[in-house]
Amino acid sequence: MLLAGVLLLVVALAVVEGNNIGVCIRNCAQCKKMFGAYFEGQLCADACVKFKGKLLPDCEDVASIAPFLNKLE
């Protein structure tokens, strides 16, 4: 019985983690639409996967998207 409970917890955590990555990548796509060539969308998506969705980019929060912004010359 205890093993079944632990297994259920592991599966639930994997689903939540997957949802966070999805939200993170959707936020990257939204920022890419907003900022166009000034935003490195692929770099943002790679960070979502690398950090398992723990660092959610918010297009209205410069601090959260600063690593993905670039200057066009």
Automatic annotation (TrEMBL):
InterPro entries: Eclosion (IPR006825). The keyword Signal applies. GO terms for biological process: ecdysis, chitin-based cuticle; neuropeptide signaling pathway. Residues 1-18 form the signal peptide. Keywords: Signal. One of its GO terms (molecular function) is ecdysis-triggering hormone activity. This is Eclosion hormone. The lineage of its organism: Eukaryota, Metazoa, Ecdysozoa, Arthropoda, Hexapoda.
